[in-house]
């Protein structure tokens, strides 16, 4: 084994790593360790295969350790490790921006690059504020998010986000933020395949916020086309169009957070295309490199770019950026990933598989304790009854069983299992995912 390889190494001590979004003690008492990955699988340090039903963390859309991506990263690492993105550039940064812009609808034709979905969210909110300031609308400072929304963990993201555990311990957050209501209603939407019929009218709540705050104070609205982290809640039919109309009516910028829905998850490069709606900005991350190197970004419409990039040649256009914006390794990984998506038709593949996936996943309806099932694109979520000792405990037990007994990874959100396999998933692997979840539901009730 090479001195650099950790594939077979087990750590001696798990104590030092302060794990994110994890119960550290419980994990360290009974770890779920992964040390290798290929295509649809992870492998534990002992070499046990684990079916990846979640594309890592909604990111490995092309599958894991695909040869062209690995080679592109290796080549780039040998050629140039880093180039400053402020006042200097490197060719792959421009190439990757052009490729991403070409995938986006309408005139979303400029790309700001960063390193994560959280940075993308905060960057989009800052660009919205600065856009209004620079176009003579400096009173437009209010940011509108949505209940049950997730936009990462920066202060901007948690402020517009709508998940109380992510907010409640972190002080007063950004001032001047308000929220739209979420779009989930189990009574009216349970067991919908794709976008639920009920719920477009929830967009009209923006009228109430305009009445309360006045449009002249509102900079932007940010929503996920499918709320991922609170259990995969697809937008109701017509909801996003309605939001677009209202934002146009009141001069408010509309931002889609496509950190999960971008790069094929809903069968299109961006969900904006699926819904026939062009937002003013799209945030992305994860699938842009299939998770191989951290990267995120913000697509902006031409009028936004033009507002900053004026002809009178300032020394700097936008006072925002990251040391690792357009990192050469990330750009190389992204170019190879985008090639793979195109060559293998993976977005179209997800679209074609959606009805088959939906039928397979909805077969879980007969399992014990199931309260709702949602599917859209290559995403599935199943809600089930909580245990008396607290919300999320039954799902945690299920996640442990799935890993140790069934050899599969899922995401949990409260008492929901959410799955989002790599877009290379085979039909038999879809069946395997459903079977493993089904057996687990039998076991935890
Ligand atoms: C919709 C959405 N926005 C933002 C983020 C944050 O991305 P990151 O964890 O890369 O900062 C996530 C992460 O899951 C997400 O689902």
Inertia-based shape? globular
- Please indicate the percent range of residues in DSSP E strands (runs of 2 or more): 15-25%
Average pLDDT works out at 96
Question: How many β-strand runs?
Answer: 17
Structural class: alpha/beta
Distance between the termini: 44 Å
Main sheet characteristics? 7 strands, mixed
What small ligands are held by the chains? pyridoxal-5'-phosphate
| Strand order across the largest sheet | 4-12-11-10-7-5-6
Helix content: 25-40%
Radius of gyration: 22 Å
Please count the helical segments: 16
Enzyme class: transferase
Cofactor: pyridoxal 5'-phosphate
Pfam families: Aminotran_3
GO molecular function: beta-alanine:pyruvate transaminase activity
What does this structure look like?
This protein has 445 residues and is α/β, with parallel strands linked by helices. Helix content is 37%, strand content 16%. It contains 16 helices and 17 strands. It has a seven-stranded mixed beta sheet, with helices on both faces. α3 (67-79) packs antiparallel against α13 (328-343) and α4 runs parallel beside α13. The protein is globular. The N and C termini lie far apart (44 Å). It binds pyridoxal-5'-phosphate (PLP). Pyridoxal-5'-phosphate binds next to α5. This is Beta-alanine--pyruvate transaminase. GO terms for molecular function: beta-alanine:pyruvate transaminase activity. Its cofactor is pyridoxal 5'-phosphate.
């Amino acid at each position: 084994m090479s001195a650099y390889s950790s594939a077979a190494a087990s750590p001696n001590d798990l104590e030092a790593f302060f794990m994110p979004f994890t119960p550290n003690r419980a994990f360290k008492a009974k770890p779920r360790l992964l040390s290798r990955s290929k295509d649809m699988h992870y492998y534990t340090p002992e070499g046990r295969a684990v079916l990846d039903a979640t594309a890592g963390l909604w990111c490995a859309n092309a599958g894991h350790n695909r040869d062209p991506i690995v080679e592109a990263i290796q080549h780039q690492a040998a050629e140039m490790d880093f180039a400053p993105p402020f006042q200097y550039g490197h060719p792959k940064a421009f190439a990757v921006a052009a490729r991403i812009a070409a995938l986006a609808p309408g005139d979303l034709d400029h790309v700001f690059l960063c390193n994560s979905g959280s940075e993308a969210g905060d960057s989009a909110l800052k660009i919205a504020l600065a856009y209004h300031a620079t176009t003579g609308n400096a009173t437009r400072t209010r940011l509108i998010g949505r209940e049950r929304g997730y936009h990462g963990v920066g202060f901007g993201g948690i402020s517009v986000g709508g998940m109380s555990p992510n907010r409640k311990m972190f002080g007063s957050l950004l001032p001047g933020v308000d929220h739209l209501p979420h779009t989930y209603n189990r009574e009216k939407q349970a067991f919908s395949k794709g976008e639920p019929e009920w719920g477009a009218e929830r967009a009209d709540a923006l009228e109430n916020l305009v009445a309360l705050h006045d449009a002249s104070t509102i900079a932007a609205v940010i929503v996920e086309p499918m709320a991922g982290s609170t259990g995969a809640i697809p937008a109701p039919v017509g909801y996003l169009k309605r939001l677009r109309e209202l934002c146009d009516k009141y001069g408010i910028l509309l931002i889609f957070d496509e950190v999960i829905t971008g790069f094929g998850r809903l069968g299109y490069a961006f969900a904006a295309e699926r819904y026939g709606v062009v937002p003013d900005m799209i945030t992305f991350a994860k699938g842009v490199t299939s998770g191989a190197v951290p990267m995120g970004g913000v697509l902006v419409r031409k009028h936004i770019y033009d507002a900053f990039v004026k002809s009178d040649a300032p020394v700097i256009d936008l006072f925002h950026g990251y040391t690792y914006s357009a990192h050469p390794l990330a750009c190389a990984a992204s170019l190879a990933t985008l090639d793979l998506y195109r060559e293998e038709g993976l977005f179209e593949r997800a679209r074609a598989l959606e009805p088959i996936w939906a039928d397979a996943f909805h077969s879980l309806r007969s399992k014990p304790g199931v309260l709702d099932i949602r599917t859209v694109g290559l995403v599935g979520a199943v809600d089930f009854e909580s245990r008396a000792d607290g919300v999320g405990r039954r799902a945690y037990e299920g996640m442990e069983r799935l890993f140790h007994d069934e050899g599969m990874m899922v995401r949990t959100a409260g008492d929901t299992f959410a799955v989002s396999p790599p877009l290379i998933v085979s039909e038999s692997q879809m069946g395997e995912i459903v079977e493993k979840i089904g057996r687990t539901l039998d076991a935890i009730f």
